[in-house]
Design goal:
Helix content of chain A: 10-25%
Order of helices and strands of chain A: HEEEEEEEEEHEEEEHEHEHEEEEHEEEEE
Shape of chain A: elongated
Largest interface: A-B, 126 and 127 residues
Radius of gyration of chain A: 31 Å
CATH topology of the largest domain in chain A: Molybdenum Cofactor Biosythetic Enzyme, Chain A
Largest sheet of chain A: 6 strands, mixed
Low-confidence stretches of chain A: none
Oligomer: homodimer
Chain lengths: 431, 431
Amino acid sequence: MIERRKPISVGEAVQRIMEWKKYGDEEYVSIEKSDGRFLSQPLKADHDVPHFDRSPYDGFAIRSEDTDSCSNEQPIQLEVVDEIGAGQVSSFHLKQNQAIRIMTGAAIPSGADCVIMLELTSEAEKDGKKFITIKRKMKKGENISFQGEDAKKGDKLIEEGTKVNPGVKALLATFGYNQVPVVRRPIIGVLATGSELLEVDEPLQSGKIRNSNGHMIISQVERAGGVVRRYGQCEDHLEDVLKTVQLAVEECDFVITTGGVSVGDFDYLPEIYDRLGAKKLFNKIAMRPGSVTTAAVCNGKLLFGLSGNPSACYVGFELYVRPIIRYWLHQSKPFLAKGTAILQKDFPKANPFNRFVRSQLHYGEGGRLFVSPVGLDKSNVVTSLAWANCLMVLPGGTRGFKTGDLVDVLLLEDETGSDVPWQESKKSSKL
Amino acid sequence: MIERRKPISVGEAVQRIMEWKKYGDEEYVSIEKSDGRFLSQPLKADHDVPHFDRSPYDGFAIRSEDTDSCSNEQPIQLEVVDEIGAGQVSSFHLKQNQAIRIMTGAAIPSGADCVIMLELTSEAEKDGKKFITIKRKMKKGENISFQGEDAKKGDKLIEEGTKVNPGVKALLATFGYNQVPVVRRPIIGVLATGSELLEVDEPLQSGKIRNSNGHMIISQVERAGGVVRRYGQCEDHLEDVLKTVQLAVEECDFVITTGGVSVGDFDYLPEIYDRLGAKKLFNKIAMRPGSVTTAAVCNGKLLFGLSGNPSACYVGFELYVRPIIRYWLHQSKPFLAKGTAILQKDFPKANPFNRFVRSQLHYGEGGRLFVSPVGLDKSNVVTSLAWANCLMVLPGGTRGFKTGDLVDVLLLEDETGSDVPWQESKKSSKL
């Protein structure tokens, strides 16, 4: 007997999943290995930056009042009494009409209140003493990087849950994080099911295809910030799949299966959920592709049943699994960032349900963002996935879209994220 | 004596660098380790996708002509003569008024020319035979994924130089790339110079700061697709630095030094270039930050002398080193992707030179892109780097900018890239 499944909305599906979200534990990694990891604590400045008044230029530290009467016509001469290399501190206290040679990044000597750039001076020697000539009036504080102007001790500089990128790493180094507190990556069990699946290195056979979803999901999990534990691929034998899923639930934080989620005789995931004693969250969503995406909870752990169709599998992952991983990693914006863009190509197909179309963004003139769908829009299509850097969202209940229409886009390469998921507006959620 | 350096334009500097670009060699890695690598060959379909006519749904394979007179009022019955699981092939040839049960992804049996979804049928048994009832007329070809509709054998699906992401990986798996041809990553020697530099785990001292550039550049190199060989940090001793740079040139494909590029007494990079017999490409660029970025060529290998100031170092890397790495990796679009965005905040400072401001993009309503600068805009500032996901470009020779003005932005997180570098328009290149 065929179960007539009742589709729920995308927003509702995300909400049911997020009720089971969990926060990952902390671990420490060396700064060298911290790229791409997510901070488990906010990064606070434990000292002022800079932590002393510094010179941002090569030049001379001087007293501004000595230049009060100075001009192109009335140059002044100052005696150079010391020289401060980067990393050095001068023991001199600058007195009237004295200057101290100072290098980029060095500490401003006491008595000085400004720095004149080297290029604006000329040097001379007289009686074994060094002098510089200055032809311009300087202001108090000119060319000084003041202690704390970049960051004050105690400032919260980065939120917890931030992904370590080159800029974050610069800050970690600045504040002496030789060991970096990060969130332990969630371990995601991945199992591809389907008797039609061949391994990557097997020759093609009639009726069979190579398992592309398994490899794709591993990459998606890693891009999202998780780690995969692979459970290979299973033929469509209920007992085998059941045993493997059971093991995965024990060993992992979350479990993803692909295939076996449709309504056919061989789609036994519902029965597996039953036998595991798992609580079903949903098994049909009003969206294309990926309508057969299912989710369940077993021993408090989420099980995601993604479609066996590559595009449906891809979209299901980004909409429902990614936010769970990003929340685990303490991100306050775990959802795909949303933008709006101008459609560059007609999309005549009607959209009985919300449609998530693999698409490419283009940054144009006039502060405008353009989007065009890539390749065929069918759930079993694999080629278009390689070219997509966003998902264009066409709300359910709409007819075709035309060039120039505004559409929502969800960004796949952005790391900023969103604190709210994409969801149906009031109008389009009437399904 | 101080050298009066003559600044060249950003466009000119990029051009001088790109004259020394090189193409990296090929190596093979397993598909599991191919994430983030760049393909050394275009990926061509070596078979049609799908490689047989498939059913995209669970249902029944039937002959459309049998349904010609069929309607809600005049349902028809077809006898179910076989069942095809995914991965199986039926030996039956479908005859008049027969149907074959077919699972998602399975091969269409001979004689059938369409598939009716399971949900649209009802099953019954009579005299030990199975029948289905159908209440709708079907079209020839309906619900069939035809051989080659996703990709035809011989189609070039992905350009060489493409970065492996989840979608690319799905294609690699589909076409049996157990071993993936990728470009060998360039080895980039990195040396931080400056007597003011402390290691990350050293306590702060007056006049000294921790070496943040070294760690930052390692991340930037890896984000761009290269591998770093670390030469640690050197005090400002000419002979030590010379020896280290010499070694790095021998062992690496490119070399980056930070610090030692300014005009002060202790900035000895020009002398090091001389003693290495390196050809100077430039030592001053009309830009902020990063005006003291220098480049030279030694034994055909590029040496980049980036500023010791974090923000200047960061920008210098993205504008001049990144494209060299991406070209090496066979990317046809090695430069940062450019967009335009609407400024969300006044930027009152005048811009005597092109200014590259660490900024954050926001995706707004109406297909619009917004940008706002993050943190202080000074070259020695480190905190703003952590928050930036783009560089806003304010052309030289302009006064301040106002909220609502349109500005160019260079995207740091995008992987699409650009085939042309950002460069001064005719107007702003008059320096």
